[in-house]
Every structure is written in C-alpha cells, then in structure tokens.
Prior knowledge:
Layout: E1 12-16, E2 30-35, E3 42-46, E4 56-62, E5 69-74, E6 81-85, E7 98-101, E8 107-109, E9 115-126, E10 129-139
Parallel strand pairs: 1-3
Antiparallel strand pairs: 1-5, 2-3, 2-4, 4-5, 6-10, 7-8, 7-9, 9-10
Amino acid sequence: xxxxxxxxxxxxxxxxxxxxxxxxxxxxxxxxxxxxxxxxxxxxxxxxxxxxxxxxxxxxxxxxxxxxxxxxxxxxxxxxxxxxxxxxxxxxxxxxxxxxxxxxxxxxxxxxxxxxxxxxxxxxxxxxxxxxxxxxxxxxxxx
Length: 143
C-alpha cells in the first residue's frame, strides 16, 4: 500500500521509521513527516525541537522499529479523538485544556505565546495519556 495515500475521512497515513529509529512504544507522540524523494512514502522523524507551522506532523498510532511501516493521524486534519502522550511536566490538564506539542513530541498544557493544536477531551485516560480533539491552531495570548 503506497504510504502517500491519505484516507480522506480519517487523515490517517502510513510512514516508515528512519533507519536505526525504534518507534515501538512511542504511540501518542508526534513525528515530523517528510516525503521520501526516491519512492512514494513518508518518513516519520521524532521531534528534536518545537515544531514549526510549516511542518507536516503526525501523532503515532502504531510504531515499528528500524524502517518499519508505522501509522499516524495527521495533526490538525484528523477529525476524531485520539490518545496522546503527556510530557513529564504537562502542567495542569483538565477536560478542555488547550495543549501544545513539546520539543520531544509529547503534549502539555499550552502557555502564553505557545501554539495550541488541540484541546483535552478526557484528562484521565490511561497513565501518561489523555484523549484530545484537534482544533485550528492558534497562539495563546500573552497574559
């Protein structure tokens, strides 16, 4: 199945983990998706900095090791609810809390000046996970 096929209704994509990168157990974290110029597929790279507005981002739904085929929901395009991984210091998280993406691909409560990508739907889902729904991205106003 070609990885660049995006399911219109769900905005779910297939992508490959980069060589030497293990995305097993990384479900709920965010990766930057880039097209591979040699073949029609996405490569999902773990974040190492706060994402930019220009990046195509996906929340890992199923991770695989070393060039394995993974599954992601496109950030801002997926219409359903998904579970995401919280950062080690997520701030105060309740239902309705606006959340942003951290430099390592986890999620936390958005603070002044940060970009909001989603809102928390269920704050207490599983240990370290919350359920979110995407919103049109915006910046939190300075206090």
